Amino acid sequence: MDLLTNAYSGSLSFANFSSRVPHRHPGRVWYVLVNCGIALALMEFKRAYLHKINPAGFGAMLLASALSITAYFGAFGEVLARLAR
C-alpha cells in the first residue's frame, strides 16, 4: 500500500513540474507507472551496501549538539543562551 501511496504522491509532483516547466503533460497514470518502476528498481538495492550508522545524520547530530551546548554556556550571547535552556 505504501508503494502505491508514494507513487501517487510522486505522480502529483511530476505532473506539477511537467505542467509548469516544459508545458507538456502526458497524464497522471503515466507518472504513477514511472514512479512504481523507480520504486521497484530501488528496492533491489542490497542492505549490505549501507553503512551501519548514517554518517550524514550522525555528523549533523554531533554538530547540532556541539552548537547547542556552546550556546547553552553563553558563547553566542545571552539571547541564544536563553533559547538553548
List the helices and strands and how they pair.
Layout: H1 2-20, H2 28-42, H3 55-72, H4 78-84
Helix pairs in contact: 1-2, 3-4
Question: Spans of 5+ residues with little confidence (pLDDT < 50)?
Answer: none
Sheet having the most strands:
none
Helicity range:
55-70%
Number of DSSP E strands = 0
Rg result: 22 Å
Q: Name the structural class.
A: mainly alpha
Any idea how many domains? 2
Following the backbone from N to C, one meets helices and strands in this order, namely: HHHH
The quaternary structure here is: single chain
Which outline best applies?
Answer: elongated
User: Helical segment tally?
Assistant: 4
What would you note in describing this structure?
The longest helix has 19 residues, at 2-20. Helix 1 (2-20) crosses helix 2 (28-42). 4% of the residues are buried. The chain has helices at 2-20, 28-42, 55-72, 78-84. The model has no long low-confidence stretch (mean pLDDT 85). The protein folds into 2 domains: 1-47, no CATH class; 51-85. The chain has 4 helices and no strands. The protein has 85 residues and is mainly α.
Entry summary:
The protein has 4 helices and no strands.
Name the descriptors.
85 residues; mainly alpha
